[in-house]
Amino acid sequence: MSIVERMREARASGDFSGLVAAIPYMASLGLEPVMVDGRLQVRLEASRIHVGNPFLQALHGGMLGGLLESTAILELALELAGDALPKPITITVDYLRSGRVAPTFADARVTRLGRRVANVHARCWQDDPDRPTATLIGHFLVG
Amino acid sequence: MTSATPLQQLREFLADPANRSPHNRFLDIQLQDLEHGRAKLRVPYSATLAGNTDSGVLHGGVITTVIDSACGIATLAALPERARIATLDLRIDYLKPATPGEDVVASAHCYKVTRNVCFVRAIAYHENPDDPIANCAASFMVTPLEVASGGPS
Fold first, then answer.
1. Contact B22/A48, CB-based, under 8 Å?
2. Cα–Cα distance between B141 and B143 in angstroms, integer?
3. pLDDT under 50 in chain B at which residues?
4. Could A24 and B97 be called an inter-chain contact, meaning their C-beta atoms sit closer than 8 Å?
5. Contact in structure between A141 and A117 (CB atoms under 8 Å)
6. Neighbours of B73 (CB within 10 A)
7. What pLDDT is stored for residue B153 in this prediction?
């Protein structure tokens, strides 16, 4: 079964376990996609393995980038009709607040879907979606 | 050890496993090289970190993480004294997919230090830096340790 078929199945059933098994990075880190009010959200039960700075107990910035990129790719893939996962071309991550070892949430929206390239914005937060921990803007190859 | 240079102090600091980043340890990221303003890190290939079981290509998050870490350590290695740093932003261009089964090296250069912000560029590659997987431009906030308590990120 292709990864996009797994994705459609996941959206239809709300069960993303088959999909996450096909994306080992998400399974290894514990990134868990769920549907909330019909919209995709990726959740992370942050623990010690996600910490970048052991003195500040702050989440690793690169790992938050991975969470945002995963979320952007899934959101885009859910909206696409193709058979391949979108490929990142360029991503820009802005770090707005330090991430604590606490439940972390991410979502994304496709700002433009072209024939070859899509522009996607993603954000992650811990307490309030309007106070994001980090945001991402990415261009993805969809053709 | 008052005679140790900041770079020597940083080497000793990073050599102590207690100071290693837990997430870098989780990904088995290793420091390969450290010079003034420059750092090279390696992440071994692992199928458990792939973005797709069909292709086996390492997930972009792994590339982002090893690049972010290399940029951070290059920044610490450019500063005249120990400081706390935090990534402000990070732009990564993915130039080609990583080859499944091959380790990835991230090589970073902190080319500009100012009082509050440091600027870094980095590339990720397998064996040949002239054939990169990814290119990065990043900036970091710097807080002197007298102001902040805690070690480098």
1. yes
2. 7
3. 1, 151-153
4. no
5. yes
6. 27
7. 47
Is residue B13 less than 8 Å (CB to CB) from chain A? no
- What's the confidence (pLDDT) of residue B3? 66
Which pair of tokens denotes residue B84? 């706390």
Among chain B residues, CA nearest to A1: B54
For residue A120, list its beta bridge partners.
A110, A138
pLDDT at A10: 83
Are A111 and A85 a contacting pair, CB within 8 Å? Answer: no
Beta strand segments in chain A, E = 31-36, 39-45, 51-53, 58-59, 87-95, 103-113, 117-125, 134-141
Question: Which chain A positions have a beta carbon within 8 Å of B58's beta carbon?
Answer: 25
Average pLDDT over residues A30-58: 94
- In whole angstroms, give the CA distance from residue A124 to residue A110: 15
Q: ipTM value of the model?
A: 0.95
| Chain A nearest C-alpha distance from B111 (Å) | 20
B119-129 per-position pLDDT tens digit: 999 999 999 99
**Residue B51 confidence (pLDDT):** 93
A-B Cβ pairs (cutoff 8 Å, strict): 146
* B62 contacts in chain A (CB < 8 Å): 25, 66
**What mean pLDDT comes out for the span A80-88?**
81
User: What interhelical angle do A61-79 and B60-76 show, nearest 10?
Assistant: 150
Cα of B2 to nearest chain A Cα, Å: 23
Q: Please state, in angstroms and rounded to a whole number, the distance separating the CA atoms of residues B87 and B110.
A: 13
Q: Compute CA distances B17 → A120, A136, B21, B24, B114, whole Å.
A: 38, 32, 9, 11, 30
